[in-house]
Fold these 3 entries.
Entry 1:
Amino acid sequence: MFGSYFPKSYSYCRFVHLMGEVNFPLFVLLTAYRLSCMSEGNYVDATKLVVSHNKRIPSHKTFAKAAKRGKSATGWFFGFKLHAVINHC
């Protein structure tokens, strides 16, 4: 269906397998940024990570215990809110 739009995309099983290989490098990167010096000009941003359509919340099982209902500027969603703090580094 989306093959013509994303010719180099992975299948779901391959993506789940690759996520395990990326966890440690991501941990190292986040730790390095956490230990870096704080600057005067920090920028804070938040975005939503939707995991399911609102009508499918009762049947959603993957993130049933972790995901919550939330509200953003564009409306209600079921998922997570990702907060990022960005500095000059």
Note: The beta strands are 43-52, 68-72, 75-86.
Entry 2:
Amino acid sequence: MSFEQLVFYAFAAIAAFAGLMVITVRNPVKAALWLVLAFVSTAAVWILAEAEFLGLVLILVYVGAVLVLFLFVVMMLDINLAEMKEGFTRYLPIGVLVSLVVFGLIYMVVGPEHFGLEQFKPTEHGPDYSNTKEIAVPLYTQHAYAFVLAAVLLLVGIVAAIALTLRRRPPSEALYQDIDAQVRVRAEDRLTMVKIPAEVEPDLPENKEEEEGAK
């Protein structure tokens, strides 16, 4: 086994371990950090397979933008961790069964001849080869409609995430500010001038006696 194959399977193992930690850790912020490690390891696998464009896009787009959005959504949604993890052990057998089915489908699609530690060997290309062009040409010609549909789905996901963060909760209504009402406020609404007439102390008998005694 060559050194390149050892590095490939090392990054593949790290990516698989990080993906397992994403779904098992209890803290969603830690899960997002494990997801960063999974993305970086997968990007290294793409680069080793001479797909540099996919590796760089995985780091710039997913780690640099999408994952930051995940973190903001997780922190702003105020997720109840105890309630979220209540059904983990109950649904674990179903998750294991679904994982086995997915791996079985991958095995059927890829084929048994492509499995094994000695099977990884990236295709060597000349210096004038551009994998960016090889991806862009079919993406914007044969799969143009699917590309637009994926963009629409991402837009819907972004709008849904913003709508979830802007929801109003009854116990914390007082914490939200009505900016429009603050801008439209007038001085008459905040300050009221009240004119109180001056009161003259009446001439009481006691006061008269004190004045006469002073004289």
Note: The mean pLDDT is 77.
Entry 3:
Amino acid sequence: MKNDKFFKKAGSYDKLDRRVLLARAAASKIKEQITLNKDMHLIDFGSGTGLLLEQFANDVKKITAIDISPSMNAVLKSKNLPCELNILEIDITKTKPEIKADGIISSMTTHHIKDIQKLFKTFYKMLKPNGFLAIADLDKEDGSFHESDTGVEHFGFEREKFVKLAQNAGFKNCKIQDLYTIKKPYGKYDVFLLSAVR
């Protein structure tokens, strides 16, 4: 487990209110924009313990959770969800899964990925025509959000540049909007939601 950066956090991850509230806010905003149905297959990239995906479990047929952390995946696996759940413990920057989904959701994960342009191109290939992309992540910040920078590739993102990367990958109808403000003892950090269509 020495390479599992979330080993110490996994057991208590769901107990932090701001994480739960962010997941609920993201799911609510996504559902305002996307009509879900019981035939749909969603992918949650950087799924962790499943805080985001479990908000969609009653609305879709199947969810594929993608996360490289064994300890986080173990917590997710222990949950009893009302939809089919497939957990892939892979790094999609290195291993491309042969999946075609109706939508990709993700929260607070892209800032851990070095090459965002390559990631968006991978997302594009993993979606069916007219499939949707919905990503929540940090606005540009001063680097103080994480107590440790281990595994952090970006101190948030400038919104216009983030949208441009999605457009360059082929996505259309790209929209970015305010989602949530994370409050920590030493500062406030805004989170945006990018939505787009393949």
Note: The radius of gyration is 16 Å.
